[in-house]
Write a structure and sequence with these properties.
Layout: E1 9-13, H1 20-31, E2 38-41, H2 48-64, E3 68-72, H3 75-80, E4 85-89, H4 92-103, E5 108-112, H5 117-125, E6 130-133, H6 146-155, E7 163-166, H7 173-179, E8 184-187, H8 189-192, H9 198-212
Parallel strand pairs: 1-2, 1-8, 2-3, 3-4, 4-5, 5-6, 6-7, 7-8
Helix pairs in contact: 1-2, 1-9
Amino acid sequence: MSDPQGRCRLVLVAPEIADPALLARSIEDALKGGDVASVIVPQYGLDDRAFQDCAEAVVPIVQAAGAAALICGDTRVAGRSKADGIHIEGGGAPALAEAMERFSPKSIVGVGGAKTKHAALEFGELRPDYVFFGRHDGDIKPEAHSRNLELAEWWAPTIEVPCIVMGGTDPLSALAIAATGAEFAALRMAVFGEEGAAARVVSEVNAVLDREAPRFDM
């Protein structure tokens, strides 16, 4: 059985599926594969009503599996769907500060979009629950983007705020993320790209992380 304690854990980014039932089934299948810390649900190109429907279908499934459901961007959708938190993407430090004031510590508040050390530190000063390095749809190559790995390698040993790093289309890109000291590795198409493979991939990634990921000092 997988033991995620004390090592990098998996975060899933929901795939771009407009049908709420199909999206929910895809995520439910993935969660059967083992430990997942959280699932981030982006809006992609959906209108607000369609995004609401997707969130309401997905959130209870994620929570039933023991993971945190995080809605990207829309605080109203997050509230109505009873999600565990909000992922801020865009708007910089002012948008994060507003979200922190409104929702923290009652809800998880994380932030993405930091492309430089300076931007990351601006976020870190506001003490979000996590900083996300990379774009949630940035998995366009097998490996994680080198800039994001470099940011994580700099951030993880010195900053108390946890970080999530976006991986690539290869599930084993999670291991390179773990090697930076990052607390979380995010996967999207690596898990959801092949129909029917999500649970197997999640299980295999957890097994690899159990065997090979460095352990944190507890």
